[in-house]
Amino acid sequence: MVKLRSVCVALVALALCVPAIETLTRAFLLPGTSRKGLPQRISHAGATHGEGSNAQGGVGRVPWGVAAAGLALGVHVGLFSALRRGGRSVVKAAETAAEQRLFESVYLDYTSEYLKGPMYFQEDKLQGFLPDYPGNPMFKNGKMTSNATGNLKTFSSNELAFLSVLFFGIGLYGNIQFNYLDPQWAKVDIGENFNATYVYESFFLPISFFFHIAAYIQKQNGK
């Protein structure tokens, strides 16, 4: 847009200077041309010389004034255009967050469909391997994505952290009860059955560890 304005101003300045140049040309060439076109008659030399000098004087005064005005106007317009163009700095439009997300979404959809097709060959696609599902990468930009958590990718980091603490408490309670507070091996030794609830609760302890890892991954992905 700035270049287009500069070109327009330059054309206007050129259009203003053309009449001035034409006027200067006439001012320099017309007197000589008029002399050559005048009839060279000796009998009317005096009268013709007087009339020619008056005509030349009239032609020389008006064109020089118009030429000076045209040149001055053209110079001022050109300087004004140059100053305005030099004072402006070209500012590039910054990409917004919405535009960046839209580009990532479109690019991901396109590449996902491309990877599903037969035009893309990868050794991991061969039978016997477990590649990432197209469109669901496990790693992106050096970070593990939410797809690595499997079915837990729809949970937020806060929800997973709460489940991790809850399962840790239940598992810890089952282990302490089974081994210390309500020893079950002593009951087995005397022929009684142990409390199976403590066994089920103890399984919650390792599950809480996986919830903790999933919460960390979701936190790293801003969820």
Q: What distinguishing features does this structure have?
A:
elongated; mainly alpha; single chain; 223 residues
Q: What would your notes on this structure say?
A:
69% of the residues lie in helices and 2% in strands. The protein is mainly α. Strands 1-2 form a two-stranded antiparallel sheet. The protein starts with a helix and ends with a helix. About 14% of the residues have low confidence.
List the helices and strands and how they pair.
Layout: H1 2-37, H2 45-87, H3 97-116, E1 139-140, E2 143-144, H4 157-181, H5 184-189, H6 196-202, H7 204-220
Antiparallel strand pairs: 1-2
Walk across the major sheet and give the strand order.
Answer: 1-2
How many β-strand runs? 2
**Biggest sheet overview:** 2 strands, antiparallel
| Radius of gyration, CA atoms, in whole angstroms | 47 Å
Helix proportion range: 55-70%
Approximate shape: elongated
Which spans of ≥5 residues are poorly predicted at pLDDT below 50?
A: 32-62
Task: Briefly characterize the structure.
By secondary structure, the chain is an all-alpha fold. The chain is 69% helix and 2% strand. The protein has helices at 2-37, 45-87, 97-116, 157-181, 184-189, 196-202, 204-220, and strands at 139-140, 143-144.
